[in-house]
Write a structure and sequence with these properties.
Residues 4-237 form the AB hydrolase-1 domain. This protein is α/β, with parallel strands linked by helices and 244 residues long. Helix content is 36%, strand content 15%.
C-alpha cells in the first residue's frame, strides 16, 4: 500500500481532496491531504510575504515532520510548482511524483509564465483592487471555465468550489522556482491527464512531448480540471493503479 500526500491547486485547501482521500483509504492506502499557507483553514496564516518558497517548505515540512517514507507526492494544477520544488528536496523519502492535470516546472519558471501578458495584467489589477495588493480572489466559476474545463462539476460541486475557495497569496504565482527542480532519477514519474490536457498531449504539442515518453507513465481520466471534485472515486482508482 502507498502513502499519498495530496496537494491542492490554487484557491483550494485539503478539503478538496476529501472524497478522493476516503476512496484511497478504503483501498488500504495512507492518504494525507494538506493545506498550504494562506489557503483553506490556514487563510489567516497568509501574509504579503507568502510565496512559492513558503509552499515548498509547507510540503517538505509536512513530510519530514511526520517522518514519512516511500511517499507518493500528488500535485493538482498550481501545486505542480511547489511540488516540483519539494520533489527536488525530499531525497530518498520520495518514491513517486504524480501530476494531476498539470506538469512539472523547470527551474526559473513561475505560474505567470503560463499566461498571456494581458491575463497577467488583469490578475495584477484584481490583486490591487480586491486583494489588498497581495491576494488573488478566485474568479467566478464560469470565468474559470473559460480556461479550465468544468466538465463533470454539477451545480452542487460548483457551489462547493465557490464556497470553499480562499484568496491565493499572489507571491506564489510571481516567485520563480529555484533549483534543484528535479527529483532523483529513480523517482517514479506519473501524469494524470484530464480531457483538455489529454487533447494537448495527443496533439503533439512540442513543449509537452516529454510527458509522452519514458520515464513518464500516463493515465487518462475523462473529466474536467478538478477531478477530485468531479470524479473523486475514478481519480482514486487511477492513483491506486499508478502505485500497483
Amino acid at each position: 500500500m502507498a502513502t499519498f500526500v495530496l496537494v491542492p491547486g490554487a484557491w483550494l485547501g485539503a478539503w478538496a481532496w476529501e472524497d478522493t482521500t476516503q476512496a484511497l483509504r478504503e483501498r488500504g492506502h495512507t492518504a494525507l491531504p494538506l493545506t498550504l499557507t494562506g489557503l483553506g483553514e490556514y487563510a489567516d496564516r497568509g501574509t504579503p510575504q507568502t510565496d512559492l518558497e513558503t509552499h515548498i517548505a509547507d510540503i517538505t515540512d509536512f513530510v519530514e515532520q511526520r517522518d514519512l517514507r516511500d511517499v507518493t507526492l500528488v500535485a493538482h494544477s498550481y501545486a505542480a510548482a511547489p511540488v516540483t520544488g519539494a520533489a527536488g528536496r525530499l531525497g530518498d523519502r520520495l518514491e513517486r511524483v504524480v501530476y494531476v492535470d498539470s506538469a512539472p516546472f523547470a527551474a526559473g519558471m513561475c505560474m505567470l509564465d503560463l499566461m498571456p501578458p494581458e491575463a497577467v495584467d488583469q490578475l495584477r489589477q484584481q490583486v490591487a483592487e480586491f486583494g489588498d495588493g497581495w491576494r488573488l480572489p478566485m474568479p467566478p466559476v464560469d470565468v474559470l471555465g473559460l480556461s479550465s474545463s468544468l466538465y463533470g462539476l454539477d451545480e452542487n460541486k460548483r457551489g462547493l468550489l465557490r464556497e470553499g475557495a480562499t484568496s491565493q497569496p499572489f507571491g506564489t504565482f510571481e516567485q520563480r522556482l529555484a533549483g534543484p527542480a528535479e527529483p532523483s532519477p529513480d523517482v517514479d514519474r506519473v501524469l494524470v491527464a484530464c480531457n483538455d490536457f489529454k487533447n494537448l498531449l495527443d496533439a503533439g504539442v512540442p513543449t509537452l512531448a516529454f510527458l509522452n515518453q519514458p520515464p513518464w507513465r500516463r493515465f487518462d481520466l475523462s473529466t474536467g480540471h478538478w477531478p477530485m471534485l468531479s470524479a473523486p472515486a475514478e481519480l482514486a482508482h487511477v492513483l491506486g493503479s499508478a502505485v500497483s
